[in-house]
Amino acid sequence: MSGTEHESDTICTIAVPVSGGRLSDHFGHCEWFTLFEVDRANRRIITSRQLEPPPHQPGLLPAWLQRQGVNLVIAGGMGQRALGIFAQQGIQVITGAAPGHPEAIVCDWLEGRLQQGPNVCEH
C-alpha cells in the first residue's frame, strides 16, 4: 500500500449543518454547512470552510454535499428521505447530535465521545 492510499483511508470530509453559529436543529434548513477535512488516524482537523447551501428542495442537499466530497454528515435532525438518499450515495450520517459549536462536535466525534440523542426531525 502506498502512502497516498493509506492517507485516503484516514482523511475524510465531514459536513455539519449550522444556524446561528451552532449545529442546526434541522439539516435541510440550515444557514450554511461547515465542511471539515479531518485526519482520523491522528484525530485532528486539517481544514474547515463554510459553504452556503443551494435553496432548499427535497433531495437536493445530499447530491450537493456528495459533489463537495463529503463522507460523513453529523446532524441534529434529518428526514427519512434525506437519510435514504445519503445511504444510496454511500455517505454516512449521524443524527441526534447535541447542539453545540461545529468544531467541538467534530472534535468529539474524532475522540469517540460524540453524544447522540434521538433524530429530532419530524419528516
Fold and architecture overview:
With 123 residues, the protein is of the alpha/beta class. It contains four helices and six strands. The protein has helices at residues 3-10, 60-67, 80-88, 102-110; strands spanning 11-19, 22-23, 32-39, 44-51, 72-74, 92-94. The radius of gyration is 14 Å and the shape is globular. The N and C termini lie far apart (44 Å). Mean pLDDT is 89; it is low at 1-6.
Fill in the keyword field for this structure:
alpha/beta, Nucleotidyltransferase, domain 5, disordered N terminus
Write the layout of secondary structure elements.
Blueprint: H1 3-10, E1 11-19, E2 22-23, E3 32-39, E4 44-51, H2 60-67, E5 72-74, H3 80-88, E6 92-94, H4 102-110
Parallel strand pairs: 1-5, 5-6
Antiparallel strand pairs: 1-2, 1-3, 3-4
Provide a brief overview of the structure.
It is built from four helices and six strands, in the order αββββαβαβα. It is α/β, with parallel strands linked by helices.
SSE ordering: HEEEEHEHEH
How much beta, percentage-wise? 25-35%
How many domains make up the coordinates? Answer: 1
CATH topology: Nucleotidyltransferase, domain 5
What is the assembly state of the chains in this entry? Answer: single chain
Largest sheet: 6 strands, mixed
Q: Mean pLDDT, rounded to whole units?
A: 89
**Helix percent band:** 25-40%
Radius of gyration from the alpha-carbon trace, in angstroms: 14 Å
CATH class categorisation: Alpha Beta
According to DSSP, the number of beta strands is 6
Given helix and strand content, the structural type is: alpha/beta
Instruction: Report how far the terminal alpha carbons are from each other.
Output: 44 Å
Poorly predicted runs of 5 or more residues: 1-6
Shape label: globular
